[in-house]
Amino acid sequence: SDVYKRQCDTTDAILNTPVTCCPVAGKSCVAVEYSAISSSEVCHWTNLVQQTSEFTASDNYPYQNTFPCVGAWCLPSSSYKTNQIPSSATQKYYAQLTTGNSGAAECAEADSQYKEFNKALSKYNCDTDYSHWTCNDCRKAYARWAAAIALPACAISADASCTAIKPCVRLCNEVVQKCPITLGFRCPEGGKGGQRADYSSRGTGYCQTFKHDELTGPTPLSDGSSNYYTTATSSSTVSFTTDCCNSMGLQSGTTGLGLSLVVLTLCLLSGVLATL
Length: 276
What we know:
By secondary structure, the protein is α+β, with helices and mostly antiparallel strands. Helix content is about 20%, strand content about 10%. It has a three-stranded antiparallel β-sheet. A two-stranded antiparallel ribbon has the order 3-4.
C-alpha cells in the first residue's frame, strides 16, 4: 500500500486539526485495500432486505457496499454485487492509521462497536413503525458512521504532505434521523466546522479523490472478462481539493437533517446500554 508520513510541527491529540496530518504520533496516511477489510461486517456492508430503498440499485439489497471508498467505486455493478475493488483501483480511499496497519484491525474494532449497538437496538420493537425509516436503515446509517470513525480519511497533496479530511456532518445526521428516538442518540453541541470540530460544516462538498494525482476514475473499468466493476462504464476526470468532506459513500440524492448536530458519541450509547 502507498504510505505517506509527515513530520508535524506539533502533536495534537484532537482529531483533524490543521496543525497535524494525523491526530497523534505514530499515524500514517495509508491507502486502504479492499482485501484488508472485505471480511468486516461494518466496513464491507451487506445491504439488508428491509432497508428503505435509497439512491440507486447499488445502495440496496442484494448489493454490498464498501464504505471506505471514493467516487464511482462506491457503486458496484450488477457483475460485482460484492463490490470487489481491485488493488489497482483509482481513486483509492486513504485513511489515518497506526503505522504498519492495513485497516483490518480498525474495521474489526468497528465491528465490535456495531455488535454493542445492535444489543441496544434489539431492546426496541423493530416490528413497530417509529417513522418512515426501519431498524435496518438505522443499522446501515450507524455502520457507515462507525466505518468513518474507524478509518478517518486523509488527502495527499503534490508536495507529499497530507491533510486530515473530516467526515461530512450528514454522516451524524443520518444516524439521528434513521434510528428510534427512544434510543437517546443525539449529536452534542459544539464545533460547527471550525478548526477543532469533528465534522465539516454543512454545505461542504464531498471529496472526489484523496490524492492529487488520482484524477481519473474509475480505473480499471472492467475485469479480464469485460465485466464492469462499477455502475460507471467510462472513466471521468475529477478535481483534487482538501476543502471537502468524507461522505463514506453517501450519495447526494437526498438532503440530510437541517440540524446543528455535530458529533455522535459512543458514550451516549454506553449510557443507554447501562440502563437496559
